């Protein structure tokens, strides 16, 4: 059997979809190496990574050149029995595939807000013709069904995974050089959020955490809020204005961009990870935080509910409710986890979202849908 996976980006960025695609590429190569022939085509990547794809001869990338990408896809379609679409924005490829080869297998991956609305004609047609739709969370599945007429039996929940190269620490000591870099007292409790701080993505909830700080101060004094990630000027300006109006400049620290090699050490600074998002498709960052032994607080209305296993792995709060957010943070900071409890959290989150589990789920999909 010949299998083609086409997607937008995997090796060009560090977002949730990129991380999902890298894991999927690795899992696909592992599962097909002896039994099937695999091809990987990216519309926007410029290179692959041997950690995730050992056989670079099956990889084609086009750096955003739509014409060359399109003609390469057309050449490959006739030689493949299974097409996996990595994003609904590539619907035209799936549409052509099913138009020419109606009996061949089409799998479509849906992540989040890109399908939380009525789809256009081509997208609707290709979704209706898909053999199976893989939604990263129950919330994405419910929103897809809410706005589009789709057979629910076609949709399988296929959650994200902890990157196979993301190691879980056993020593939870906070990095002294990072504490010094951010001028944080080693005795301070630290609230962290790790995300892109963007005016285009105003749903992460870090502004609500900032608004909760004066309320947290009624219960605790020696704490700070560390916001980890690249920010744009407009969003930083908005948040600075909010911080000034609340008179909490001494409580909030922005790190700016943090390299991947420093990410785990930044997670370990946190006594609690908080991101009360409203529109998260899944939220890989939640499971990464828990894989570092950091307790997590998320919103209770989006895909992060799946990442926290309906609250069994962490705390769910109403993302617009400052009292909920405040109480959850205060509780976490007053009852910090012991090393044994952190190790238990790591064990539990890996039981659900470890790469081996992800690969088993993918294998099951192929066994029940493709073979």
Fold blueprint:
Layout: E1 2-7, H1 16-32, E2 37-42, E3 59-61, H2 66-77, E4 82-85, H3 91-100, E5 105-110, H4 121-129, E6 132-135, H5 138-147, E7 155-157, H6 176-181, E8 189-194, H7 206-216, E9 223-228, H8 233-246, E10 252-256, H9 263-267, E11 272-275, H10 284-290, E12 296-299, H11 304-307, E13 315-317, H12 322-334, H13 339-353, H14 355-370
Parallel strand pairs: 1-2, 1-4, 2-3, 4-5, 5-6, 6-7, 8-9, 8-11, 9-10, 11-12, 12-13
Helix pairs in contact: 1-14, 3-4, 7-8, 7-12, 13-14
Question: Can you describe this structure?
Answer:
- The chain is α/β, with parallel strands linked by helices and 371 residues long.
- Helices cover 40% and strands 16% of the residues.
- It has 14 helices and 13 strands.
- The strands form two sheets. It has a seven-stranded parallel β-sheet with strand order 3-2-1-4-5-6-7, with helices on both faces. Strands 10-9-8-11-12-13 form a six-stranded parallel β-sheet, with helices on both faces.
- Strand 6, helix 5 and strand 7 form a beta-alpha-beta unit.
- Helix 7 runs parallel beside helix 8, helix 7 crosses helix 12 and helix 13 packs parallel to helix 14.
- It starts with a strand and ends with a helix.
Provide key terms for this protein.
single chain; 371 residues; alpha/beta; 7-stranded parallel beta sheet; 6-stranded parallel beta sheet; 14 helices; 13 strands; elongated
């Amino acid at each position: 059997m010949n299998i083609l996976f086409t997607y937008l980006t995997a090796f060009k960025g560090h977002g949730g979809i990129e991380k999902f695609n890298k894991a999927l590429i690795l899992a696909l190569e592992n599962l097909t190496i002896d039994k099937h022939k695999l091809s990987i085509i990216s519309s926007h990547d410029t290179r692959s990574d041997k950690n995730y794809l050992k056989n670079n001869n099956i990889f084609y990338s086009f750096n955003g050149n739509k014409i060359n990408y399109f003609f390469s896809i057309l050449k490959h379609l006739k030689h493949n029995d299974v097409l996996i679409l990595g994003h609904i924005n590539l619907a035209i490829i799936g549409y052509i595939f099913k138009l020419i080869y109606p009996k061949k297998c089409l799998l479509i991956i849906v992540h989040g807000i890109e399908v939380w609305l009525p789809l256009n004609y081509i997208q609707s047609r290709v979704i209706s013709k898909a053999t199976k739709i893989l939604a990263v969370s129950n919330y994405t599945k419910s929103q897809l069904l809410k706005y589009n007429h789709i057979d629910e039996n076609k949709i399988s929940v296929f959650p994200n995974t902890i990157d196979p190269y993301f190691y879980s620490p056993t020593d939870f000591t906070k990095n002294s050089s990072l504490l010094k870099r951010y001028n944080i007292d080693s005795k301070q409790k630290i609230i962290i959020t790790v995300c892109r701080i963007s005016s285009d993505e105003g749903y992460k909830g870090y502004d609500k955490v900032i608004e909760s700080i004066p309320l947290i101060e009624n219960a605790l004094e020696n704490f700070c809020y560390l916001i980890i990630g690249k920010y744009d000027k407009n969003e930083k300006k908005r948040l600075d204005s909010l911080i000034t109006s609340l008179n909490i400049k001494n409580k909030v620290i922005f790190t700016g961009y943090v390299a991947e090699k420093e990410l785990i050490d930044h997670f370990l600074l946190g006594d609690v990870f908080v991101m009360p998002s409203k529109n998260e498709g899944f939220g890989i960052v939640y499971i990464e935080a828990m894989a570092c032994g950091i307790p997590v607080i998320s919103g209770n209305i989006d895909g992060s509910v799946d990442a926290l296993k309906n609250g069994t792995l962490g705390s769910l709060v109403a993302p617009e409710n400052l009292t909920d957010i405040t109480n959850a943070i205060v509780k976490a900071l007053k009852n910090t986890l012991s090393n044994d409890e952190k190790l238990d959290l790591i064990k539990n989150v890996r039981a659900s979202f470890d790469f081996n589990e992800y690969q088993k789920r993918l294998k099951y999909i192929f066994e029940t849908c493709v073979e």
